[in-house]
Amino acid sequence: MKILIIEDELALQENIKEFLESEQYLVETAVDFPTALDKAMNYSYDCILLDIMLPGGNGLDILRELQKTGKKHAVLILSAKDSVEDKVLGLEIGADDYLAKPFHFTELLARIKSIIRRNAQEGSRLISYQNIKLDPENRIVLVDSNPLTLNRKEFDLLYYFLLRPERLLEKTTLAEAVWGDHVDQADNLDFIYSQIKNIRRKLKDASARADIQAVYGVGYKLV
């Protein structure tokens, strides 16, 4: 799961980042309006944590741009401004939830999990496809009720596929989702092949009724 933190208070941004990384999230950051808008428009995230007051602009304008272009992100507004008007406006223009500063990190985590479930998992705690079940919060994968052992990147890749079954996913998209925004600067993406090869072998050994199919020159899809 990849999170974008848009926050200009550097100490708070770093504390949130460290906390979410300890919870096994992949975290990207932006400290000002131009950087935040560029990342929100050009990369994909499972959830964006959005401060309203930013150097160079207003966070709500990022929401407006996302809505205008049809770019879909789950968004949790984080702001010291706790007026009813700000909450209503943020929700009306596309935010999923609103959390006023200061907040406890445990509540932040609960809100993020809830938003992701609503947007990506249709409210369910488990993701199911054929005879595979994945529990993202406890990082457990079951095939016919038997546990499947995966390393962190294998789990994150399978999670990404299970949220998008039978959809062709480009290599760059997979790399950015699991390894971070700047992975597109890598000389090649051969490391994805080795991870997917391992997942396919483990799924086959577990008698999973699903496989990750390569589409030559483009990417992969779960079928």
Topology:
Blueprint lengths: L1 E5 L3 H13 L3 E5 L2 H10 L4 E5 L1 E2 L2 E2 H11 L5 E5 L4 H9 L4 E4 L4 H16 L6 E3 L2 E4 L4 E4 L2 E2 L4 H11 L6 E2 H9 L10 H16 L6 E4 L3 E4 L1
Parallel strand pairs: 1-2, 1-3, 3-6, 6-7
Antiparallel strand pairs: 4-5, 8-9, 9-10, 10-11, 12-14, 13-14
Helix pairs in contact: 2-3, 6-7, 6-8
Protein name: Response regulator transcription factor
Keywords: DNA-binding, Phosphoprotein, Transcription, Transcription regulation, Two-component regulatory system
Pfam family, one: Trans_reg_C
Observed structural traits:
single chain, 223 residues, alpha/beta, Rossmann fold, Arc Repressor Mutant, subunit A, five-stranded parallel β-sheet, four-stranded antiparallel β-sheet, 8 helices, 43% helix, globular, transcription, transcription regulation, DNA-binding, Response regulator transcription factor, WalR-like
